[in-house]
Amino acid sequence: MGRAPSPAVLDRLSRPLRDVRISLTDRCNFRCQYCMPREVFGPGFRFLPTAELLTFDEIERLARVFVSLGVDKVRLTGGEPLLRPRLPELVARLARIPGVEDLALTTNGFLLTPERASALRAAGLGRVTVSLDALDDATFASLNGVGVGVERILAAVRAAAEAGFSPVKLNAVVKRGVNEHAVVDLAGRFRHTGHVVRFIEYMDVGSTNGWRFEDVVPAREILDRIAARWPLVPVAPARPGEVARRYRYADGAGEIGVIASITQPFCHGCTRARLSADGRLYTCLFAAEGLDLRTPLRQGADDGEIRRLVAGVWRLRIDRYSEERAEQGPSRANKVEMSRLGG
Ligand code: SF4
Questions:
Q1: If pLDDT is split at 50, 70 and 90, which confidence band does 188 have?
Q2: What is the CATH number for 178?
Q3: Which of 243, 267, 268, 323 to mutate to test the pocket of ligand 1 (most atoms within 8 A of CB)?
Q4: In total, how many domains does the chain have?
Q5: Is 332 part of any domain?
Q6: Residue 285: CB within 6 Å of ligand 1?
Q7: Can you tell me which atom of ligand 1 is nearest the CA of 269?
Q8: What is the pLDDT of residue 5?
Q9: Residue 221, in any domain of the structure
Q10: pLDDT digits over 62-74, tens only?
């Protein structure tokens, strides 16, 4: 940490490669409707066997390659990344890579105990994002698909804060007719805590969540609901390519964010690559295919060869799916599942 980032490789739209999201597993202990609907990801679903997952050595090698191409922000995701055994060991290895300025993790919080939070913090993890879509058990349990209650996740947020992760970011996906009533509750619950709730427009990720435009609650409506109670003031982005639009409460009670991929797409500033748990490089959340990096890795390719492969794909990148969706409607059938891409 602290080293100037490597000059970033640019894509066809002059977007630098700055962020990589690394999925550590395609498995999850939740079945959120908008990501892993239980009717699809049921008992018979074939998840990636351990032998097909990137090893820690392979993840670290690829992370170093990404950093050498301009990446300074690494986010660990899944499925549910806390399901990956020995996670603090991997975190420590990634945190030691010169040039990794920001090492973050997104979790559903179910396994985030005080002990795990402290171990991840001690290993060098910088930030934690916890998903929480509602504050009433009935709604939350139906959304997560496994009947888990809210208190368990609130305890995870406390554990993260006590371990030194502050602010904790909370992600809440808002779906019409399901949890728009929770928007003001969630905002209110985290005012004056320093933690930041980011409300996410329900997206047509993957090909199995049955997405319909009419189920989207636009960011504008989410903000209006909150501002009706607590006036909001826009905040400038902290870094180019920041996904969330940020707002602070006029009364000083903190900050919220909205991620408006549907109604206010932000592809023009998208600097994110995604690495799946089985070693495929994806250049968009709504990708239908990715480049296999695991095979060349396991066939003995050196870092230079891997770097050429990654840079080659990024330089050809023209992805702007969300902007295209806004212009011409949803246009891709066989999108890879978000639980495989890493969100
Ligand atoms: S739709 Fe694709 S290109 Fe656009 S912001 Fe999302 S990940 Fe980036």
A1: very high
A2: 3.20.20.70
A3: 267
A4: 1
A5: yes
A6: yes
A7: 5
A8: 64
A9: yes
A10: 999 999 999 999 9
